[in-house]
Design brief:
single chain, about 110 residues, alpha+beta, four-stranded antiparallel sheet, 3 helices, globular
């Protein structure tokens, strides 16, 4: 939900956010969130999932948030043996892709 919320928050009125879900092979699913929002500078992408890291501090104060959402999302995905990656181009939008295995054993 955090990734969708961020896409909505940083996509201007009239922009588009697309969410897709499907199978990736027989043992994985994917969730992809694509937007044509403000995008993320390339130099910020490596730090994007760090706790409290804010790409644009001025805009973040205006939009709210703590800088924890993406870090927590990554921890949740990795706890479930998944992976999250981001591709982005400044002023053209971002794509967040999550893959999760479908064959994890149930907890005892």
């Amino acid at each position: 939900m955090n990734i969708i919320s961020n896409s909505l928050k940083y996509t201007p009125p009239g922009g588009q956010v697309k969410v897709s879900v499907g199978n990736k092979g027989q043992d994985q699913i994917y969730i992809k969130v694509e937007d044509n929002g403000i995008g993320i500078p390339k130099e910020d992408i490596p730090r994007l999932f760090e706790r409290f890291y804010r790409v644009d501090k001025a805009r973040s104060r205006e939009k709210g948030g703590t800088g924890l959402g993406l870090a927590i999302a990554k921890e949740i995905v990795e706890y479930h043996k998944g992976q999250i990656v981001v591709e982005s181009e400044l002023d053209h939008g971002s794509t967040f892709a999550i893959t999760l295995p479908t064959n994890l054993p149930l907890p005892e």
